[in-house]
Write a structure and sequence with these properties.
about 250 residues; mainly beta; 6-stranded antiparallel β-sheet; 18 strands
């Protein structure tokens, strides 16, 4: 490397390298906060990432990105709704809002003193220790299309679901958050033909002694009212990122 800063952690884990043009530290700017069904995540701005987990214990979590500038958590079970297969019976979320360091303006989280690392251009901020009192360590990653999807462990998925969709293994999930930018919750009704498409992609948290951890789930319903209905497994169309909150 040229002049700058490079930090390598234990087992050669990457921390930071100022020679990597465009690299940015992801700052936890809000949360943990509790979600409200079908209501914008508090503190979210375009370009942010949302990381979430079930508010309590296990369950499925899903987010609607129908409007990319206004993502909304979907958990009808906690709003008194009953939608049958329309929704994946998802639960209330605890969530974090995460933002690239050069888009963060607050610099007083740690008393004004700290370390700032700039990009090779000398002006774009890669890292500033004053921006946050919390951190998010990336602990697991699944690439695009690597998970086959399906409905859930309890409904016929069995061994295939477990082996194909297991992202993070572990029974203690208290501080484990999943990137909801890879999630999806959408119901589309064709304006002319009337056919209906239900599309859901998200995460399932499972605690206890049997196959604990974080799983991907994904499915679609294609419905032609009165004629046809078909269920399809749906692979992940984006990378799946799991992080651990450090505070």
């Amino acid at each position: 490397m040229g002049y700058g800063l490079k930090v390598i952690g234990g087992n050669d884990t990457f921390i930071i390298d100022s020679d990597l043009t465009g690299a940015r530290h992801l700052v936890v700017v809000a949360g943990p906060s509790t979600s409200t069904h079908n209501t914008t995540y508090t503190g979210f701005a375009s370009g942010d990432l949302i990381f979430a987990k079930p508010l309590s214990g296990s369950g499925r979590i899903v987010t609607s990105w129908t409007d990319p500038s206004n993502p909304k958590p979907i958990h009808p079970n906690n709003s008194g709704g009953s939608y049958g297969y329309d929704y994946p019976n998802s639960v209330q979320q605890s969530y974090l809002v995460v933002r690239p360091s050069d888009n963060v303006t607050a610099t007083d989280q740690n008393g004004g003193y700290g370390l700032t690392v700039f990009d090779t251009n000398g002006t774009s901020k890669m890292y500033d220790s004053r921006q946050t009192s919390k951190g998010l360590d990336i602990v697991a990653l699944k690439g695009q299309y690597q998970c086959p999807g399906g409905m859930e462990l309890e409904s016929g998925g069995g061994t295939t679901f477990v082996s194909g969709n297991h992202i993070y293994a572990g029974g203690t999930l208290t501080n484990i958050y999943s990137c909801m930018n890879s999630s999806n919750s959408n119901i589309y009704v064709h304006p002319f033909t009337g056919y209906i498409n239900h599309s859901y992609r998200g995460y399932m948290y499972r605690t206890g002694s049997t196959d604990p951890g974080v799983y991907y789930f994904g499915w679609e319903w294609l419905i032609i009212p009165g004629v046809y209905a078909q269920f399809f497994d749906a692979r992940n169309i984006n990378d799946l990122i799991i992080g651990e909150l450090v505070s």
